Amino acid sequence: MPPDDLPNALALGSLVNSAGRVLGMSLAGVLAAAVGEPVLFLVNAVTFLAVVSTVRAVRVGELHPLAVSPPERAGMRAGLAHVRRNHTLLTLFALGFVLSSLGRNYQVTMAAMASGPLGAGAEGYGLLSAVFAVGAVLGGLVAARLRTLGPPVLIAAAGITSLLQAVSGLMPGLVGFAALILAIAAGAVVIDTVMGTRVQFDSAEDMRGRVLSVHGAVAASAGAVGGPLLGWMCEGLGPGTALVAAGLVTLAVTGCAAAALSVSRVPRGSLREA
Predict the structure, then answer these.
(1) Where are the alpha helices (DSSP H) in 70-120?
(2) CATH architecture for segment(s) 3-67+75-264
(3) Could you tell me where this protein is found in the cell (predicted)?
């Protein structure tokens, strides 16, 4: 795949993943009622044969080869050193950690809002989850149509979703909260697509695999930290106040990231050390 097609490929991947979540949840609910949970698990296991077949069908000759690190730049330590020297990557990872930990753990805050201020219970949480998945599909379509996926798009999406998150904590009804969740989910997919594109374009080609590993580690650690933290905030402050506080924090961090990126921004497609 040519490098210029990377943003659209990432957007397509997000779109397929989000559409699969929407269709998968709906189909699973129907099958669970029709044939029972044990058969549903068996069907799910069989579907992995399609995944294996798809991987085997990949045309290796059409893959874009990456540069190989020389011996002095090989290994995990060299990869971490590359990230440490690249101010753009450090800013992206810091922003991604805050957004993922305080702004993306909606499995916690949606449940707290549904069972608390909104009074919607389990049914309301199920509805919000479905709306979030639909929003993610829409976000994938938006990201696929964007001609450039640079830092301005990332900052704009992060700022808007942070503001919407703060406002969502003030919503008194399920419909209004669901409408904001739809927009927040769309923004989250745009953020993920831009972030995935930038961490590859703004790193040395021979370091790209290790940079992506760091990116995955940051996302995983953000989920591990943010879930308990948001749960504690919902318990102590109330779900609505927790959403407002977390949204304002992510909005402030987005502003700091915008300032940092304007100083240390690497041109799009650059593979040099920053």
Answers:
(1) 76-85, 87-103, 106-115
(2) Up-down Bundle (1.20)
(3) Cell membrane
